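Troubleshooting: if your tokenizer reports a length mismatch, compare your output against this known-good record of 443 residues.
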Amino acid sequence: MILHKITVAPIVWLDKLLLPLMAALFLPLALWRALKAWFDSASLNLILILAMLALSFPFLIVTTPQNLAYFFLILAILSGLTCKNSRDFLATLILSTAAAVTHPIAGIPALIFCAFLALYHSDNKIKKYIYPFLIIITIVILPALFYFLNKNLTAAAISASPAQNANQFGLSVPGQENFILNFAYLYGFNLKFILAILALSGIFIAYKHKNQCKILWLYFALSIAFFASYLITAKLPFAFLINYERDDYPARILLVACLFLLPFFILSLYALIEKISKQNIFIILSSAGFLSLLISAALYITYPRYDNYFNSRGYSVSSSDIKAVDWIDENSKNDYIVLANQQVSAAALSRHGFKKYYDSGQNQIFYYPIPTSSPLYGYYLDMVYKKPDRETITAAMALAGVNEGYFVLNKYWWAFPKILDEAKFRASSWQAIDEGKVYVFKY
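Known-good structure output:
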């Protein structure tokens, strides 16, 4: 909102472009500053900056508070590598504070990092006794916050959403599509193993040059501590979230742990690039071609996509969603509720604001199922993952105290043809929106 007032740029475009543009501009500059302090070869440093694109950073393509906080955390991590005086530390502290103000899951680790950095550069003789205390705080602070959050927030509705893929740590070799798609997903599905190899290699290199890489053990300790924090947090029930969102918060902590391994990724990649640069022209050109393939694959898997391996199912509100909520608003004659996904609900919020709330006893219910902790969202998930029964939406209408309800089904949804046929049979009437991209069912 402040940037909107200063620049007079549309909020929609600021929301879309703010983080991607900031990341594209400032991350290469921050990385260049760190590399220039570490390594002598400017040409290899430039190649390394290009090679970093192959690691894939999907959280930098969408402007959200959490993603923006990750961005500030990365800048703080890179800034800490070259911290030599109070001015450098102040820059790192400002970046960490920006992360904390933006979102606590990245902000708290950023501030803890500053505490470690200040202690590392201090002349305090008892600092070796303070480190264990800070590590314990690092491990327990986020799980403790989530524990108290879980105790004090209302439990979300239980839904029958599909189970998450349990084989997250197995090697995947896709082979059912063309070479280009198979290669992209071979890389994408197994990127975690590549990152693990890079991290281990970087740790080995840092150990070999431990006198020059003393500060990196601070990063290693923080990564291990946040990984332990992730393991503890993963055991919490997160009852205030719906089923398929309950892994989200632990996953965010795991990402923080991985971000603190960034210096080790850099060491490994630089060592690899330096070794390749000393080979013959054939190996150099072959490696350059292979790197371009990896970067292309990383860019492909970074962005929302719809292919035979993966369906992103919409990261943003579509024009069809807007047409659907407008049609409902124009054709409803009484108080009503709508069971729809989050994109459609966001479209309603954008077009009609906080138009209707209903009293359900202890809490007020927004007439669209937003946020996902809303009881209406539980009913929506039952409609799409169990069966679009009239009884389900009738129960939702009874909860809100209304006699009219709508169920919105997007064409990209899982099992769309089956849900569509069943909903048509049970609804009082239905309307196809935008040539069948969205269907609205009235009850």
